[in-house]
Amino acid sequence: MSRIDETIAMDRRRFLRAALGGGALLAVGGSIALPRLLAAGAGGGLPALVHDQPGEVALECFSDDGRDLGVRQVQRLVLTDAQWRSRLSPLAFDVMRRAGTERAFSGPHERPAQPGLFRCVACATALYNAATEFDSGTGWPSFWRPIAKRNVIETRDDSFGIERIAVSCAGCDSHLGHVFDDGPQPTGLRYCMNSVALRFIPRTA
After folding, report:
1. How far apart are CA 166 and CA 180, in angstroms?
2. Alpha carbon distance 145, 155 (integer Å)
3. From CA 172, how far away is CA 57, in angstroms rounded?
4. Is 163 exposed, middle or buried, given 0-12, 13-18 or 19+ CB atoms closer than 10 A?
5. What ranges in the chain are assigned the alpha helix state H?
6. 154: left (phi over 0), alpha (psi -120 to 50) or beta
7. Angle, to 10 degrees, between the axis of helix 3-20 and the axis of helix 90-98?
8. Which E.C. number(s) belong to this protein (predicted)?
9. Catalytic residue among 120, 123, 172, 192
């Protein structure tokens, strides 16, 4: 089995588990042009493999005031389901650990009034700069690029018979949302995220 086939099979198993638990909903909006998205940097033409075992991962680290602290090797956060349930709200657990989708317009999705960055709710990995957020009209926070490409994992998702690219946090392998090819320039991409998976850190200085 090829690397791509293994990744697709993994996504199918995750979707089936989510569907059986009643957690998976289809995030609407945006046709997907898979070759274009892969060319934009998803694993150099191949989807990145999702990790579920302890180990180190190279992340671009940022301070709360937005300073780039460089690439550092950090321990990937791997927990049991029981530990995740105690760490996350029920909705966050459904979205981040079962690949669910929050209801549109149910969480904060407008551009924040001040500069800052968005971190993963589960492990605090820096994910998006508020300066790259835009109002997509979809009811979910939307960004035209991640704060650092290495901080997110992009994998093929063919659930519901639709080819999409799912986005997960590289620091803990938690599902964040999907990326579509109908965003603004300069990338033309729309990283459509679940509000419940993000924590906004305002820049005070």
Report:
1. 9
2. 16
3. 10
4. middle
5. 3-20, 34-39, 81-87, 90-98
6. beta
7. 150
8. 1.8.4.12
9. 192
* 169 labelled catalytic: no
Under 8 Å between Cβ of 54 and 189: no
Q: Which residues touch 72 (CB under 8 Å, ≥6 apart)?
A: 58, 59, 61
In the chain, the N- to C-terminal Cα span, in Å, equals 51
Please state whether the peptide bond connecting residue 186 to the residue before it is cis, i.e. omega within 30 degrees of 0.
Answer: yes
> Cα-flanking dihedrals φ and ψ of residue 60, to 5°?
-80, 115
User: In the numeric block, which tokens belong to residue 192?
Assistant: 């459509």
Q: Spell out a b/e string for 72-93, using b for 16 or more CB atoms within 10 Å of the CB, else e.
A: eeeebbeeeeeebeebbeebbb
Q: Which helix (H) or strand (E) holds 142?
A: strand 142-143
pLDDT digits (tens, 9 = 90+) for 46-87: 333 344 667 899 999 999 999 999 999 999 999 999 999 999
- Residue 90, both tokens: 């029920």
As a whole number of angstroms, the distance between CA 43 and CA 27 comes to 23
What are the structure tokens assigned to 56, written together?
């180190």
